[in-house]
Amino acid sequence: MFIHVLQSEWLKRKRSFASTLVLGGSLFTPVVVIIARLIQHKALPKLYAMDAFWPQLWRSCWESVAVFFLPLGAILATSLIAQLEFKSNAWKQVHTLPVSAASIFLAKLAVVLVMLLQYLLLFTAGIYAAGMIPYALVPGVPYPKGSFLDLPLWRVNALYFVDTLPIVAAQYLMALRFHNFLIPIGVGFMAWIGALAAVSSKVAAWWPYSYTILHHLKGAQPRWPAFGFFLLLTAAGYVLFATRREKG
Amino acid sequence: MLALETADLHHRFADHDVLRGVSLQVPHGSIYGFLGANGAGKTTTLRLLLGLLKTQRGEIRILGKPFTKDVLRQVGSLIESPSLYDHLTAAENLRLLQIVHQCPPTRIREVLELVGLAHTGSKRAKQFSLGMRQRLAIAAALLHKPSLIVLDEPTNGLDPEGIIEIRNLLIELNRSHGCTILVSSHLLPEIERVVTHLGILGKGRLLFQGTIDELRRQEVPTVRIATNDNATAVGTIAQQGIAACVDEGEIVLPALTNERIAALNRQLTARNLDVYEIRTVRNDLETIFLNLVRE
After folding, report:
1. Inter-chain contact A245–B75, Cβ cutoff 8 Å?
2. Is the ipTM of this complex over 0.90?
3. How many CA atoms lie within 13 A of A215 on its CB side?
4. CB of B99 less than 8 A from some CB of A
5. Average pLDDT, stretch A126-149?
């Protein structure tokens, strides 16, 4: 039965702002890189001849995504997906379906997580395109040195996925709880600003919104706090969701 | 056999008792009109029936079984305003539900045709008129061929033509598809021609429950008299041992035999009063309903 609820939830995101956000947010940085390189095309032959062409492109693209687009995208997309029901006045319809509260809760969360994976995959493909499109369009630019596939694609994406999980869980909890979508989004933005402010302090290691930023700035870090926050906030979100006296 | 039954249903919000012992009995195959003024507790009752509110006291049985999520497989509902995803088309809105209910995909087309929305194609729900939205919400309630349909004020905000359309649809569903329909409204004329049974709710209590004919039998005829001096006339009538009062410029008194009416008329004219009109008034259903609710 869960799979049917998941299919139904997946269909709801069709043409929604959240799915546009995933597409736009994931490709924004690569598109900016492509435009910037086409404008400064004279510097490209030297750049493309560098040994560390792909690692440098990879790191520069991740900078804006890890600090800005990934956390903010997670805040917005998670809140918007959960808010679809409030906006459509549809919680009462969802709760009168012959499915358990757990199925509803987990299916919506699964949709957000699949969208997060979609974001990371599109972004990775976008980085590859950001390397290859200027080569294809600008005459005299050599084929990039090294291989894109030598980059730690899967490992880095998997780690950023885990780093984003606490943000998703916290936003999901709030978005299911509050009818007014400005509350989860506003609190999410404030928490993200708090993460930026606290990034150089020890507090950052225990702040759910800071892990993507820490990953980019400090590299290796234990993942269990991020995973722990995810489990804790998800469990709290479910308890609040399932025990609501008035549904819909 | 009852399609829906509640026993001694109570509900309280903060310090306010919304329902005070509501015992509904909705016969199988009926169209049950659930009437009450705004704030009488209709929506609270329907929300309890569908599990949207937790039952505080009392019992609910749907299709002979205590309420569980599984019972909802046989129930279709529309509570208050339609639940529609504006960014999706009519067919997509129904597809979401078809996947969960696991009914044949052909049902989507069938119910869209039934409610007259088969032509909407790629038009998104946000472009629908209020009437179309209401009809799509009804289509969603019918999609999985439920045995019981619960509709909360389905004609709210509709124009007269829309109201007639919904009314005809309910009759069609009941007659051709054998659905039991529980439909709430705060206006008796809106559902009077459709329903087979009625439940009237006032201030959280069930004031009447039965068939339309049984409600008609509750009517109390009155005699209304118009004179040139109602105050003197009331005094004269009171001397005959009949309680009378003045309402909207007429004297109102309980039903009397023709002989007593004639005798009363003679008394009034003997006092030099001009009697313009004497008539017996039988209350219509609306008046009976309003009297019940006002009491």
Report:
1. no
2. no
3. 29
4. yes
5. 93
Residues 58-87 of B with CB under 8 A from A: 69-73, 75, 77, 79-87
Q: Which residue has the tokens 């799915």?
A: A19
Q: Which residues of B151-171 are buried (b: 16+ CB within 10 A; e: fewer)?
A: bbbbbbebeeebbebbbebbe
Token pair of B55, please?
């039952």
Using left for φ > 0, alpha for ψ between -120 and 50, and beta otherwise, residue A89 falls in left
pLDDT band at A244 (very low <50, low <70, confident <90, very high): confident
B102 touches chain A (CB under 8 A): yes
- What angle separates helix B130-142 from helix B106-114, to the nearest 10 degrees? 130
**Predicted pLDDT of residue B295:** 63
CB pairs under 8 A between A and B: 84
Residues in chain B: 295
Q: Shortest CA distance to B287 belongs to which of B261, B248, B258?
A: B248
- CA–CA separation, B17 vs B58, rounded Å? 14
pLDDT at B191: 85
* Residues in chain B with pLDDT values less than 70: 295
State the CB neighbour count (10 A cutoff) for residue B57: 11
